[in-house]
Design brief:
Layout lengths: L13 H22 L5 E6 L3 H16 L3 E2 L8 E6 L4 H20 L4 E6 H6 L1 H6 L5 E3 L7 H9 L4 E3 L22 E5 L1 E2 L10 H5 L3 E2 L2 H13 L4 E5 L7 E3 L6 E3 H9 L6 E5 L8 H9 L6 E3 L7 H7 L5 H14 L4 E8 L6 H14 L3 E6 L7 H5 L6 H24 L5 E9 L6 E5 L5 E5 L8 E9 L4 E5 L1
Parallel strand pairs: 1-2, 1-3, 3-4, 4-5, 5-6, 7-10, 10-13, 14-15, 15-16, 19-21
Antiparallel strand pairs: 8-9, 11-12, 17-18, 17-20, 18-19, 20-21
The structure holds S-adenosyl-L-homocysteine, iron/sulfur cluster and FE3-S4 cluster.
The site of iron/sulfur cluster has 10 residues, from helix 7.
């Protein structure tokens, strides 16, 4: 018998959901007292993963409670914030370039404050203040509640820094202010941090230890989004499958499959997505829960990183090639219509041509609908940087990456060709980039479909028959 058959369905307690909402109102009142009267403007830019974009919405909530208003025009702002990423050297270079632009702006607008948030703030700490004279505030991902204090410090002419990493912070009582949002689809953070220690990765150092958010506060946030007309939530975490929350009321433990089910049961019209899954943690129970609910999208981002068992071991991914392939087989057995995507690193330490061929062949085996592909970038402080030589020359890394990209392009195209003639339920998200007469939305498998708009509008569910495709997009017509 499958494990999930034994699992009791969670009965979530409506009163507790309400209590969490009231907690949120209380927090807002406290913040308003602190910043009453000011009508300043803030401008925020986010880089890196979805989690950073979601965190910026928490920061926006803290600022709006202080009386700050968001602006998209940085020249009008009193406070510029950049939420940064450290995952690869290039990501940090991008931020440095943006700081040069803010430098110029600061000369024109004396009194304007500049804050660096996120992973680069956490990685570099006070060195960032020393190297970047324009920066007034440095704030790590677990310290956003301290923003009002640091703004006050900076307004007094001092530099403010808080890079404390917490074992508890989940911002569960803060109701995010949705930025640049289509009103249809929203991110909901369910856990923070990562305990995995992949040898190439800086995230455990910038985001700290894993911790999961209170189930009831997640359900309250999703309920509130539903009330405001949202149709899709993406549950976010560095490693969502290791979500684990102990209910203090009855000592029961809620795992990721339980959480998925509880969110899916809120309303059949609410689509549920999630990201990212670590292959070692995605269980049959999660797969069966996905299969059992129509509104849990049939799409898994399951980063393989490499197809070579030798490289995977060096990466400390804790699975090998065969284990990953078996997981892919389980996904296909339980959900034949599920799309899987991946992340791939080319040219990790000691990677041979044979290892690289293993990566190409596992991509083929897995039939990824799409992948994010990178060449290895050594990150200071990681196990790989301390213990292994970054020994693959850049031109080889780049050539292997080109081969990986070329193969993925073919796989994506073939994947899309197989959808021609099929009809999908699509959640309409936006007007197509190419034409005002066309709308675009995703199917359950996370593929973007463009179609002539007819009478439909953003936020509707429609059925679309696929008639054509490119490597990136499906095209179709309403049925
Ligand atoms: N938690 C997610 C990954 C987050 S980082 C997971 O484990 O799947 C996103 C991706 O960036 C990783 O999957 C990896 O492919 C890539 N990445 C991380 N560190 C990198 C590095 N040092 N060089 C190149 N790519 C890297
Ligand atoms: Fe990084 Fe690995 Fe954690 Fe993903 S699971 S964030 S790659 S350490
Ligand atoms: Fe980047 Fe930090 Fe996300 S390093 S990928 S912003 S967790």
């Amino acid at each position: 018998m499958e494990l999930y058959d034994n699992n009791p369905t969670i009965n979530f307690d409506k009163e507790q959901v309400e209590e969490n909402r009231q907690g949120d109102v209380f927090f807002k009142e406290q913040m308003l007292k602190k910043g009453a009267g000011s009508h300043k403007k803030f401008y925020i830019e986010s880089y890196g993963c979805q989690m950073n974009f979601s965190d910026s919405e928490i920061v926006a909530a803290i600022l709006s409670d202080m009386g700050y208003e968001p602006t998209r025009d940085m020249e009008q702002s009193d406070l510029i914030l950049v939420n940064t990423c450290s995952i690869r050297e290039k990501a940090e270079d991008t931020v440095r370039k943006r700081l040069r632009v803010f430098d110029k702006l600061k000369l024109q607008r004396p009194g304007m404050l500049v804050g660096v948030l996120g992973c680069m703030a956490e990685r570099m700490k006070s060195a960032l203040l020393e190297e970047e004279k324009l920066v007034d505030i440095v704030l790590g991902p677990d310290a956003y509640r301290d923003l009002p204090n640091l703004i006050a410090t900076a307004e007094d002419g001092d530099k403010g820094i808080n890079v404390f990493l917490s074992r508890e912070e989940t911002y569960s009582d803060i109701n995010p202010v949705r930025l640049d949002n289509n009103g249809v689809s929203a991110f909901v953070t369910i856990m923070r941090g990562c305990d995995n220690m992949c040898s190439f990765c800086v995230v455990p150092f910038t985001r700290g230890r894993e911790r999961s958010r209170d189930l009831y506060s997640i359900l309250a946030e999703c309920t509130e989004l539903l009330g405001r007309g949202y149709k899709e939530v993406t549950l976010l975490g560095q490693n969502v499958d290791s979500y684990k929350w102990k209910n203090p009321e009855n000592d029961s433990t809620v795992d990721f499959a339980d959480l998925l089910e509880a969110v899916a049961l809120l309303n059949p019209g609410l689509r549920v997505r999630f990201s990212t899954s670590h292959p070692k943690d995605i269980s049959d129970k999660v797969l069966h829960t996905m299969a059992a609910h129509e509104n849990i999208c049939k799409y898994i981002h399951l980063p393989v990183q490499s197809g070579s068992s030798k490289v995977l071991k060096k990466m400390n991914r804790t699975y090998d090639r065969e284990w990953y392939m078996h997981k892919m087989d389980r996904i296909r057995e339980i959900m034949p219509d599920c799309a899987v995507s991946s992340d791939i690193i080319c040219g990790f330490c000691t990677e041979t041509e044979e290892d690289h061929q293993d990566t190409l062949s596992i991509m083929q085996f897995s039939d990824y609908s799409m992948s994010y592909m990178f060449f290895y970038s050594e990150r200071p402080g990681t196990l790989a940087a301390r213990k292994f030589e970054d020994d693959i020359p850049e031109e080889i890394k780049k050539r292997r990456l080109e081969e990986v990209i070329r193969l993925q392009n073919q796989l994506s195209y073939q994947h899309n060709l197989r959808d021609i003639g099929k009809t999908f339920k699509v959640l309409v998200e936006k007007v197509s980039k190419r034409s005002q007469e066309e709308l675009a939305g995703r199917n359950s498998q996370n593929k973007m479909i463009v179609f002539p708009k007819g009478d439909t509008k953003i936020g509707d569910y429609v059925y679309v028959k696929v008639t054509d495709c490119t490597q990136a997009t499906l095209k179709g017509e309403l049925v």
